[in-house]
Sequence to fold (65 residues):
Amino acid sequence: MSLELLAEPAVTPITVAEVKEHLQIDNNDEDSLLDSYIKAATKAVENITGRSLITQSWRQLFLKP
Fold:
């Protein structure tokens, strides 16, 4: 049996705009860095908990013995 992620989720649990508002950041200089932090944190939480934070599509393959 194997699992295959069909497509990465199109959204993240929190947006760059929400992070910037919380941190009171007014410029766009670090948007790509903040986005990569959000994606890394999301993957870390999903790996630790074994759960998806955003709905995802997976394919499960069963091999004949």
